[in-house]
């Protein structure tokens, strides 16, 4: 008996990949095998990039907090330690925002924990 392939599903699957490859250059955008490889690799890089973004933002916040803390006469590690000792639960994202946009609030927090 002859083998039957599901042409509709195969075409839809290929069309989905080629739609994702829109904007690629050369054969990457219209040749099925080349487009499939590059779309899969692009999706992999996007997945990894979403994880790396969290890492880089946290390091940026730490850099900003450290710079502002040094202006107040302490360091990042001492500040975080004093915050933990005094049971003040402010995350790094908020601390970095205070350091950048509301330095008087940041200075008040530093003075509060240094007492």
CATH architectural type: Orthogonal Bundle
Apparent shape: rod-shaped
**Helix-residue proportion:** over 70%
Q: Say how many strands there are.
A: 0
Give a description of the structure.
- The chain has about 120 residues and is mostly helical.
- The chain has one domain (about 10-115): Orthogonal Bundle (c-terminal domain of poly(a) binding protein), CATH 1.10.1900.20.
- About 75% of the residues lie in helices and about 0% in strands.
- The chain contains five helices and no strands.
- The model has no long low-confidence stretch (mean pLDDT about 95).
SSE topology sketch:
Blueprint: H1 7-20, H2 32-71, H3 76-85, H4 92-101, H5 103-114
Write out key terms for the chains shown.
75% helix; mainly alpha; 115 residues; c-terminal domain of poly(a) binding protein
Brief overview, please?
This protein is mainly alpha-helical and 115 residues long. It contains 5 helices and no strands. α2 crosses α4 and α4 packs across α5 (103-114).
